[in-house]
């Protein structure tokens, strides 16, 4: 017991180090509530979330095998909002949100797309939690407990998650006797990948998918590993050339000071860190993460990239030179903080869970080699593999995602296969570089906005939304309306 | 060790009883070499099979999970015929045969479709063995050994088999630097189901599929459980009304004699059985199986249904009455036998393996309730489940196939989804009743013949082939030629 606790604590510490370390190229795939909710108006209203009824489904642990353990079940959480539903008799549609790598409740407070549009479609809204997140963890374990068990965590995979969604959707339809109701799935970020894959793998369970900010091309050798950082760079450069230049120049300045006697102590004071810095890299990792977050969630009406750049450009250069500028950007981004860089925070389920998912199958080779405002930091598969092997004792399968879901030559493959997928993106979002930005066929289409951020289109509507965002959502729903209309016509023809 | 051997022997005996018992509704899904090779000309010539080179691939045991054991590998056999291949430079096509529930070598000797057409397409031919059959069994075990281990047999599933095929095809393409070569998969019977599912699940790995005699609708509540027996009945009735009548009348006559003192002994003599019968049911089970086999493999030029019916109709009724007629049919079907009904035979891999597959996921509810020349023998899911649970300690998942692959409302689902599948059937084959017999879209099409039998279109060509069979094959290949031509045009457009 002592030994296993010790190994748990060690692996926990490693996992924190692993996830916060820049070498891990951890893409911030989750919807970061703290980023999104900088503007609290962006949250779904409490009255709306009160309309949901909570259920737990006895989910099969292992859909693909027939070992005795495969038959184990766990409680998987899902929510239903019946308020606007037109009912089974009219085959009214069912909108299903496919949860991503965080507790469902967190997502519920930001995703408004389904309920915002449910009334006009008389749609049922269903939100399903992804296995191993929130309250949907096998054996009633915490995620930490599940992840430290090499056997239990082994069932934490995307293919299992899609089969979970299929089982729950079919159960809900059967329960409501709504066999002919069309189902539209919606997913955001990793959940957006799941949504597009779900339409491709389970066309008999869903009529169509809205895949918001789904970086499905960030696998294998499909795109450059620099794709993400080059968009972050572009965002800052477009906001301000001088700001971009200052950030680019700051890294070597941090390195220079860190190497001085008491250099890290000097940097700690300069950046008002919550704890003394352990290295210059700690500061750099934080700043990289901040710039990436600002770009990914460069949300209206505040536009954090501009907030940071305005502060950097407007800073008094006499105080602390270029790092004074960078610090001005930092405090403009983090208002109301008493200290910066390394405040005491608990590690999130998203970080923990995604740490495992990346080390098993979600190998997204994000790195920096050139054309960036960051220092080079290439993704090296062998190092990544070693680190994952060290942490979990298994090696990632870097080719599985493209083997199971495909992605190479996606236009060639899907131009005559499949239908009814919207790939939505905002081009300010660095992940848009790995998204589908061209129409592939009449009904596998790309809808993007120049100014949009990560998953912005599926957030709750707000009165301050700019026109281009209102238009994007309208376009998406007109497309979905078209799918449903064609489906009803087909249904009438086949049921005659 | 003694105990485990004992339990193995018991389970082996149970498995034989289980498989031969009529209550198990075992559809003869495999290509029965003994049926097909009644006419030895039907075999692929030895010189043709000599052109194959044999390979073994290090296959992942469990593609869908990341448990430590998931990473185990086993040797999976595949064969390549390079003789006609045009090479990677010209993106020449690759035909891939997806093995079904028998050793690959057995299939190689009857499946001629790929090599018969390889020359005109300059195609590479690849044959892949299905996991757990032939020489592709994990841990170098025999199938019997693998099946008695509750853990090992648990990885014996169709989803794993499809992922195996994907991994090998991608490996072969990579090895040959043939990334842009179109792949056409071909499968027969259960392998035909796999072929159609493979195109739906892995469109990025295969351009199209020929699914020969694939009863993909024989799941859940999609079609009547009587579908199979009603086609057998129709075949016999069409061959001869009096023959059909005689068979229909024979069952109660067997029952009547079996109930007499020394009745089974009398039946044993009457039917010249190899061993004394244990019951009238043993004889009935054999006869049912014979009539089903004759209908399923009612192959030209002999047409076994007619052979049986001619003998029944021509028999001297003075000797043994109606059972004398039935016996005349039996000996006409089994020429050159010294004894009948229960000759000493080893249980085949197909029977063993399919026994497990049916008890885990391939739950095809085949039964007899009415409108048949057989006595009623309904499929009762609860009894089936009990028997499987008794034999393997697991309960079947009767809804998994329709959850993962779909099949309900297939026309509605696929009329605007997917492409490039040929469902080929021969209507004399009882499994055609569960096949797709209508075009679903421009490129998901049905090609069938009135007189065709199970998988006949993919057998090796023979000079005695009737015109309708030659035409069917020609139609199929013209469709495939069209897919490939469109693909090359798309490829040129995308690679410009």
UniProtKB/TrEMBL annotation, chains A, B:
GO terms for biological process: proteolysis. GO terms for molecular function: peptidase activity. Pfam families: Peptidase_S28 (PF05577). Residues 1-21 form the signal peptide. Gene3D superfamilies: alpha/beta hydrolase, Serine carboxypeptidase S28, SKS domain. It comes from the Eukaryota. Keywords: Glycoprotein, Hydrolase, Protease, Signal. Belongs to the peptidase S28 family. This is Lysosomal Pro-X carboxypeptidase.
């Amino acid at each position: 017991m002592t030994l296993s606790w010790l190994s748990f604590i060690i692996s926990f510490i490693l996992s924190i180090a692993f996830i916060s370390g820049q070498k891990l190229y951890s893409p911030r795939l989750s919807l970061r509530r703290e980023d999104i909710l900088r503007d609290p108006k962006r949250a779904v209203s409490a009255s709306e979330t009160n309309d949901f009824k909570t259920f737990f489904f006895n989910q099969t642990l292992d859909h693909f095998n027939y070992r005795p353990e495969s038959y184990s079940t766990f409680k998987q959480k899902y929510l239903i909002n019946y308020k606007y539903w037109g009912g089974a008799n009219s085959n009214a549609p069912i909108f299903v949100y496919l949860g991503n790598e965080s507790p469902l409740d967190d997502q519920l407070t930001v995703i408004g797309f389904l309920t915002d549009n449910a009334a006009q479609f008389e749609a049922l809204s269903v939100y399903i939690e992804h296995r191993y997140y929130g309250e949907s963890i096998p054996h009633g374990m915490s995620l930490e407990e599940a992840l430290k068990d090499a056997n239990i965590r082994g069932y934490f995979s995307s293919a299992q998650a899609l089969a979970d969604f299929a089982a729950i959707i079919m159960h809900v339809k059967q329960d409501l006797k709504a066999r002919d109701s069309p189902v539209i799935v919606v997913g955001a970020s990793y959940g957006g990948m799941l949504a597009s894959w779900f339409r491709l793998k389970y066309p008999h369970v869903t009529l169509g998918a809205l895949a918001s900010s789904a970086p499905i091309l960030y696998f294998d050798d499909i795109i450059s590993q620099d794709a993400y950082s080059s968009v972050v760079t572009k965002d800052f450069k477009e906001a301000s050339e001088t700001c971009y230049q200052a950030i680019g120049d700051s890294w070597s300045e941090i390195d220079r000071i860190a190497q001085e006697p008491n250099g890290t102590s000097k940097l700690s004071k300069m950046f008002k860190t919550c704890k003394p810095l352990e290295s210059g890299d700690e500061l750099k990792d934080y700043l990289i993460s901040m710039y990436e977050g600002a770009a990914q969630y460069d949300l209206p009406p505040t536009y954090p990239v501009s907030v940071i750049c305005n502060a950097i450009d407007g800073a008094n250069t006499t105080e602390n030179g270029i790092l004074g500028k960078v610090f001005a950007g930092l405090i403009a981004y983090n208002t109301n903080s008493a200290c910066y860089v390394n405040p005491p925070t608990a590690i999130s389920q998203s970080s923990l869970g995604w740490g495992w998912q990346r080390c098993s199958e979600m190998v997204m080779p994000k790195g920096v080699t050139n054309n960036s405002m960051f220092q080079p930091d290439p993704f090296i598969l062998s190092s990544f593999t070693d680190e994952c092997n060290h942490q979990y004792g298994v090696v990632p399968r870097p080719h599985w995602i493209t083997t199971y879901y495909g992605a190479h030559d996606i236009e060639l493959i899907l131009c005559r296969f499949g239908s009814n997928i919207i790939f939505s993106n905002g081009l300010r979002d660095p992940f848009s570089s790995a998204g589908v930005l061209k129409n592939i066929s009449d009904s596998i289409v790309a809808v993007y906005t120049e100014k949009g951020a990560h998953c912005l289109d599926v957030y709750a509507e707000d009165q301050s939304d700019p026109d281009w965002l209102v238009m994007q959502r309208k376009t998406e729903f007109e497309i979905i309306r078209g799918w449903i209309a064609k489906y009803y016509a087909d249904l009438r023809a086949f049921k005659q």
